[in-house]
């Protein structure tokens, strides 16, 4: 696929469902599935993450995202929380934020469903680090400029969106030590959701004490993983 635009090491490219994503030109890591960025985010993190949490709990849902990246997961959750009028508190960790040139060219607002949330999308990116903002009453958002392994949350979460780069690129966050932290960061009925279905990762989750389930994946991926505390 040809890049649409480039800033530093990152280039914007179009995935198979027509939505854009980013690729690191050195490592080759992509921020979403090449089979569809929007489809993957919606299926993994909204459908099997946020919506599951809405079913489990009627009050505020607290989410921790590992890897803010393009902000697509956050944007889709914001849309859902506003449309369903459900309170969501969303915390997102990121060590290497994208530049304004990148986020303003990703064009997620060029779809009928997301057009009306463009100004909120820009606010997700321009909001200050470590300081919570509230968007259209229902969605509270804080991003932290930090390495995943250095994060110390002040409370517990209902859901963790594990959206780091794949185990081959970023092995430590898919192993027992880090997953033990995730377990401790979750509330009693809390769960972790991710696109990753690698066997060694699922075994590590079980060793930590998670109850692991495999769910059907989005186009181009057989399975994804959800793990309950
Ligand atoms: C797969 S992408 C996340 C995609 C994102 N959730 C989205 O909706 O666009 C992984 C993200 O993790 C970030 N990252 C990589 N290593 C990190 C680390 N050690 N600590 C914090 N963030 C890291 C990357 O910069 C990238 O934004």
Structure in a nutshell:
The chain contains 6 helices and 11 strands.
- The strand line-up of the biggest sheet is 6-7-5-4-8-9-11-10
Find the CATH topology: Rossmann fold
Helix content: 25-40%
The outline comes out as globular
The N- to C-terminal Cα distance equals 39 Å
Helix vs. strand class: alpha/beta
Name of the top-level CATH class: Alpha Beta
Order of helices and strands: EEEHEHEHHEEEHEHEE
Instruction: Work out the helix count.
Output: 6
* Main beta sheet: 8 strands, mixed
CATH architecture descriptor text: 3-Layer(aba) Sandwich
Number of domains: 1
According to DSSP, the number of beta strands is 11
The Cα radius of gyration reads 16 Å
Strand content: 25-35%
- The CATH homologous superfamily name equals Vaccinia Virus protein VP39
Which residues sit in consecutive blocks of at least 5 with pLDDT less than 50? none
Mean pLDDT: 96
Q: Would you kindly provide a written description of the structure presented here, covering whatever features stand out?
A:
The chain is of the alpha/beta class and 229 residues long. The mean pLDDT is 96. The protein has helices at residues 37-56, 72-84, 100-103, 118-126, 176-185, 199-208, and strands spanning 3-7, 10-14, 20-24, 61-66, 88-94, 133-135, 139-145, 157-162, 186-194, 211-216, 223-228. Helices cover 29% and strands 28% of the residues. The protein has an eight-stranded mixed sheet, with helices on both faces. It is globular. The chain has a single domain, classed as Vaccinia Virus protein VP39 (Rossmann fold, 3-Layer(aba) Sandwich). The protein starts with a strand and ends with a strand. The structure holds S-adenosylmethionine (SAM). S-adenosylmethionine binds at residues 31, 41, 67, 69-70, 72-73, 93-96, 147-148, 163-165, 170.
